[in-house]
Specification:
Order of helices and strands: EHEHEHEHEHEHHHHEH
Number of strands: 7
CATH architecture: 3-Layer(aba) Sandwich
CATH class: Alpha Beta
Radius of gyration: 20 Å
Bound molecules: 1,4-dihydronicotinamide adenine dinucleotide
Strand content: 5-15%
CATH topology: Rossmann fold
Helix content: 40-55%
Number of domains: 1
Strand order of the largest sheet: 3-2-1-4-5-6-7
Shape: globular
Amino acid sequence: MGRLDGKVAVVTGGSSGIGEASARLFHAEGASLVIADIRDDRGEALARELGPRASYVHCDVSTEADVKAAVDHALARFGGLDVMFNNAGIAGAVGGVEEVTVEAFDRTLAVNLRGVFLGVKHAAPTMKRRGRGSIINTASVAGIRAGYGNHVYSAAKAAVIQFTRSVAMELGEHGVRVNCVLPGFIPTPMIGLARGLSAEEAEEKLRVVEEAFTGAQPIRGPGAPVDVARAALWLASDDSAFVNGHALVVDGGASGGRMWSTYQEAVVGLEERLRERTL
Ligand code: NAI
């Protein structure tokens, strides 16, 4: 028996990375699935591969009509909506604060924050009517710690966390749970895309990102998109029935603090210097 048997899920950003891994896992666990993305080729191919319980819609999450249409598509095609995974995101504005243009600032918030807001807004009515549902938003450890992402991205993700908590207080009273996942260092095309690579190049160079992320956290990595997908699955399923307004960190401990080995190196170095002075 699957953990999402009989449920209908929409996954935004489902064509790639964490969204794709979640789409595959939700589907394998029995969900009927709408993949909503702007990468039509990959999203359509994935829906075809998964079969009749999956469907793809073109959806730019920063556009209200597109998000509403994705939810309507789930209702029309599969007869309901149980899980809304607002996962689409971009690294957006890169560089030091003086380099950030107003256009890049606005686009970063439009996808990463407005996109989440629109997903929650349009999933809410049908879920409230039925008195149940699980909404999951993708934030980031960059939303709770400085130095884990670019400035505007970090601000957007912090806003996603607080928006999640705030809305959970409203929708929880109607039986609808709202939670978020906070991934750490996960090798996906987003990392290369943020550095100016094309989508194809970003996928080809994933190995480079994996190597870079291997030692970035106490649990030896690299983490994988499916690690985040498993956390999202738990929030989507009835296993988390009493969890609402939660920010679930999935980062192998990256945001916990300084690694013990790094601390030890610093302390040993200091002890050696202190001994030198006393001799
Ligand atoms: P990815 O680049 O592999 O996947 C992102 C997906 O979102 C792509 O399929 C892309 O086409 C889609 N997308 C982009 N803009 C869109 C829009 N306007 N409308 C609809 N879809 C759009 O990247 P990844 O890493 O899987 O990102 C998924 C989420 O995870 C994002 O919200 C990201 O900020 C978040 N995240 C990722 C981390 C990482 O290390 N990879 C760390 C923390 C958070």
